[in-house]
Protein 1
Amino acid sequence: MNNLHNPPVFDGHNDLLLNLWLHHDEHPADVFLQGPLKGHLDLPRARLGGFAGGLFAVFVPPADYAAQMKPAAAPHDPLGITRRQIAILHQIEASSAGQARVCRSAREIEQCMQQGVLAMVLHIEGAEALDDELALLDEFYDAGVRSIGPFWNLPNQFGVGISGGFPGSPDSGDGLTAAGKALLRACNRKRVMIDLSHMNEKAFWQTAEISDAPLVATHSNAHALCAQPRNLTDRQLAAIRDSDGLVGVNFGTAFLREDGKRDGNTPITEIVKHLDYLIATLGDDRVAFGSDFDGINVPDELGDVAGLPRLLHALAQAGYSPGLIEKLSWRNWLRVLKRTWGE
Ligand SMILES: [Zn+2]
C-alpha cells in the first residue's frame, strides 16, 4: 500500500520534542532529520506516511518524572525546559535545508504543504513556565507558539487538570484559577489557540464561557466509547460542535479501547469507531487527527507515523468518501486554525 493517492496528513498533537529533549538533547535536529528515532516520529518516516505537519507540543513533565528520566537536568526548571524545547524545533528548521519549517499562520502551513515542506506549529502543553503576569507570553508568541493548553494532568498556577484512572469522569474538582482565566483572555487577544484536551470538566465549562474562540480539543476521544477521564462527554462534544470547534482523535489505545487498556493488540478499526461517533456528533467539518505520537501506545497495526496510509485505507474500507478523508486528514484542521488565528 503506498500513499501516492492519499491526502497529506496534518495532525493535532505529538510529543516529539519531549522525546528529543529527554533522549537526544546533544544532536536533536540531526537525529530527527536523519532517523531512525526510537518512538513514532522522525522525518524519513513522516515522509513515508504522508505526514505533512502538525502541532508539536512543548511539554514540561512533572518534576519527579523529569528527575528520574533526565537526572542531569535537575533542578526542575519549567522555563528552561520550555525554552530548550522551543529551541530544538527551531534547530530542526535551521538544519533541515528547507525540508521543515516553523509555521505561524494557516497560510504558511498551506504553503509548506504545497511545497512538501514539513509544517511545524509550536504548542505548549502545560504552561507552568508562564508567570502569573503573562510577561513571557509575548516571548513565546514571538518564538512561534500559536497554541496553549494551560495545564497537563497535574494542578499548576492556572488550574487543575484531569486526574483519576479508568474508568472515570472528567470531573476532578476545581477548574481554572484567576490566573488561568487571565491566561485564556490573553490567548484570545493574541489569537493563540486554547487546547481543552487536558482540562477537567469545570475548567472546560469555564473556558466555554470565557473564550471567544472555537473550542478545540487537540487529542481526545469519545467518553461514551472509552471512559477515560481525558475523553469528552456527549455534552462537551455538543458544546464543541456549537462553537464550530474541533476534536482531534487520539491514537492511544488507552483512549480508544472500551476496557481502557494500553495494548498494542488493538485493531485500527477502534480509531474508526471513535471517528464514526465523533462525526455523528460533531459533523464532517469538526473532526480531525490528534495522534499523540511519542506520547502514547498506538495500535501495533498502525505502528508509527509511517503507518498512516493503513489508517486512511481503513477509512476507505469503512465507506468514508475521498472528500471526507481529506477533511479529516487536513482540511478541518486548516479550517479551525483559520477561524482561530485569522486568515
Ligand atoms: Zn496530552
Note: The chain has a mean pLDDT of 95.
Protein 2
Amino acid sequence: MSENLLSIRDLKVHFPIRQGTSRLLKAVDGVDLEIQRGESVALVGESGSGKSTLGATIVGMQKPTTGQIIFDGNELGNDKESAAKRMRDIQIVFQDPVSALNPRMDIGDSIAEPLAIHGVGSRVQRAQRVAELLELVGLNPQHADRKPSMFSGGQRQRIVIARAIALQPKLLVLDEPVSALDVSIRSQILNLLLELQQRLGLSYLFISHDLSVVRHFADRVAVLYLGRIAETGRTADVFSRPVHPYTEALLSAVPLPDPKAQRTRQRIILQGDLPSPANPPAGCRFSTRCPIAEPICRETPPSLQPVRPMQQAACHLRAPAVHI
Ligand SMILES: Nc1ncnc2c1ncn2[C@@H]1O[C@H](COP(=O)(O)OP(=O)(O)OP(=O)(O)O)[C@@H](O)[C@H]1O
Ligand SMILES: [Mg+2]
C-alpha cells in the first residue's frame, strides 16, 4: 500500500470566459499535489486563487480540463466506477452549514442519507449508526429527530461533519469549514476535526484564508497564486522560513504569538490587486506585485524547485533551477 493517498499531476481547470469565445479563465493551471494517508494539507491563497476549484475537482464536482488525479492507487476519471469510489472515499465540507442541510429533514435522516443511498444496513442499523455518529461529533444521540433550526451554527457544522464521515471516507476536503462560524466556536470545530482525524485516520485537504488557523491545523501547506503553487512545504518550515516573496507577504499579515516579535515585525503590503486569472501576467504570475522582481521574472514562468527537505518554491531568484 502506497503512502500517498492522493496524487494530483499537472491538473488544469479552465473555464470558457463566455459561451462561444475561445478565451479561457485558468482557475487551476498546472498543479501537482500529494496527500499522504492520515496527513492534513492546507491550501492557502487569496480569494480567486483557485482553492475551491481544486477542491471541487478532487471530489468530482468539477471536471478537470487536463491532468491526473490518482486516488488510493487508481486514476479517477469521469466514469461510473470513479464516481462511486469518490462518493464513498472522498467527501467535502463547505463553509456554510445552514445551506448544507435540508431544513425540512430531521438531522438524523440527513446524516443517514449517504448510508441509505449506498444501501448500507437496515433502517434500524442506520439509526444506530446515526446515534454513533452524533456521539462521535459531540452531539446528543437522542436529538436525531430534530430539525436543523434547533441547532446553533457550530452544532450544524458538527451535523454536516457527521454526514461527511458516515461512509467512512478516507479523504475530507474542508473548504473553509469554520469561516462562517463565530470566532468563539471555531476552535471547537477545529479540535473536533483534529480529534476525528486521529481516531479515524482521515486525510484532509484544508482550504483556508486564515493562516493562523493553518499553522496549528496542517502538517503541510501549499500556497496557491493565480492557479499555481508558489510554495509548498511542512507547515512549520514554511511559516518559519518562507522562501517565496508571496508567502512572505501573506505571512507578514499573520499576528505572531510573541508580542515582542509582533511589534518589531514588518508588514509587507503588496502593490496592486490580484490580476485576473483570465489574463495572467507573463512569466512568473506574481511578477506584477513582487517587490524583488527582475526582468527574467516577467519573461519565464518559474517551476517549483527544492529549497529544503520537503520544501519547494517557484521563484527564479530565491529558488533558482539547478542546471546540470
Ligand atoms: N464554474 C465557474 N465558471 C467560471 N469561472 C469560475 C467557476 N468557478 C470558479 N471560477 C473562477 O475561477 C477563479 C478561482 O475561483 P475559486 O472559487 O476556485 O477561488 P478561491 O481561491 O476558492 O477563492 P475564495 O477564497 O474567494 O473562495 C475565480 O476567478 C473564479 O471567478
Ligand atoms: Mg473558495
Note: Residues 239-324 form one domain.
Protein 3
Amino acid sequence: MTAAIIRLEHVRKHYGSPPVTAIDDVSLRVDEGELVAIVGPSGSGKSSLLNVVGTLDRADEGLVEIAGHDIARLDDGALSALRSGSIGFVFQQFHLAEGVSALGNVADGLLYSGTPRHERHERAREMLERVGLGNRTTHRPNQMSGGERQRVAIARALVASPPLVLADEPTGNLDQRSGASIVDLLHELNADGTAIVVITHDTALAAQLPRRIAIRDGAVVADERSAA
Ligand SMILES: Nc1ncnc2c1ncn2[C@@H]1O[C@H](COP(=O)(O)OP(=O)(O)O)[C@@H](O)[C@H]1O
Ligand SMILES: [Mg+2]
C-alpha cells in the first residue's frame, strides 16, 4: 500500500472572536506521489488548509499527519525541520529574492539542508535546466517574465527533493498561456514521484488534474478522481 504524505482527521480551525470557522471538520488523505487540486471559491478555506498542511499554522482540533509525523507532537524546532526537509512551497506572488539571480534563488532552497555551497549551486543549475531555464541562471527576477519567475519558484521548491509540494494559486498572476505551461510543468515534476497539491479557485485548472478535492465553507464537499 502506498504511504500517506498528508493525513487529516476531523481538523477544525477558527479565527478571532466571535469565531469564524475556516476549516470545518476536514478529513482527507493524500498519498505519496499524488497530484491533487484543492478547489473552492474565495473564502472557502483554501489558504487556511494550506497553512495547516504546510505546518505554518496549527489546527485547533483534529489530527494532522505529514510524512507520518503527528505535527501536534512536534515542537517548533522539529516542525521547522520537518517543513524544510519535506515540503516545498510555491505561491501566487512567486516570493523570489529580488536582487538575487535565478541560480541564487533556487540554491536558497537548499540553505537548511546542510549542502555545501558549491553543491547547492550545482543542484540549482540542474533544477533550472529541468524547469526549462538553463539559459536564465544569471537573470534576476525583474529581468524575467511572470511565467519564468514562477518556474524559478518551482525549481526552488523542488531542489531539495521534498516528497510534498504545496502550490497556492500558482497560475493566479499569469496569463493563460504561461499558466498552462506551469500546469504542464507540475505534471512533469509529479511524474518523477513528488506529491503536488495545487490550491486554486480555477475550476478549469483543477479539471486538468487527476484528483480534485472541492471545499466550500471550510468543508470537503467532493473528492473526485478522473479515470486514468
Ligand atoms: N487571520 C484571519 N483572521 C480572521 N479570519 C480569517 C483569517 N484568515 C482567514 N479568515 C477567514 O477564514 C475563511 C477562510 O479564509 P481563507 O482560508 O483565506 O480562504 P481562501 O483561501 O479559500 O480564500 C474566510 O471566511 C476568511 O475571512
Ligand atoms: Mg487563499
Note: The chain has seven helices and ten strands.
